[in-house]
Amino acid sequence: MTIAPLTISDKAIKRLSAKFAPSVFAEKAGFQTNAVVEKARLRDVLLFLKKEEGLAYSMLTDLFIVDLHPKDPRFEIVYLLTSWELKDRVVVKVRIADGERMPTVSDLFEAANWLEREAYDMFGVRFDDHPDLRRILMTEDFDGHPLRKDFPTEGFGFDKPFKVELEEEQR
Predict the structure, then answer these.
(1) With 90 as the cut, is the pLDDT of residue 169 above it?
(2) What is the DSSP track for the chain?
């Protein structure tokens, strides 16, 4: 059996784990290794990946949330960083409970401004110190966060107008 050589992102995560232990650990997902980070160290880890010599993961390509309901912690926030110099990507994850707040990274990566707003709008996760945290896809008066697993498929109160019409027809 041959062992596959470490990829560039594997080496980056190994450096992270060494520098930030025990706040960071590597997690294998198929062929990809992800860095799972404690919320309190997230900004330090992202800054390290962005600024550390030999890494330069300077672009936040995506930020999204996975709802693990009914598990606890409920949410997994995934940061996908790209290094143009290394032609590589690295995945950083943070797991938080429902109602827990996250620190913004919009001051570290401009793209986070819109991505954090979308995460707030769709899942209700609040980002502390975000410069403009408000809904981006739904109207301000919309009730709830539609990508949560416990959000009703048809929306809140979907059947109410139809029940009234059916009752009137049956009379």
Answers:
(1) no
(2) -PPPPPPHHHHHHHHHHHHHTTSEEEEEETTEEEEEE-GGGHHHHHHHHHHSTTT---EEEEEEEEE-TTSSS-EEEEEEEEETTTTEEEEEEEEE-TT--EE--TTT-TTHHHHHHHHHHHH---EET-TT-S-SSS-TT--S-TTSTTS-TT-TTTTHHHHHHHHHHH-
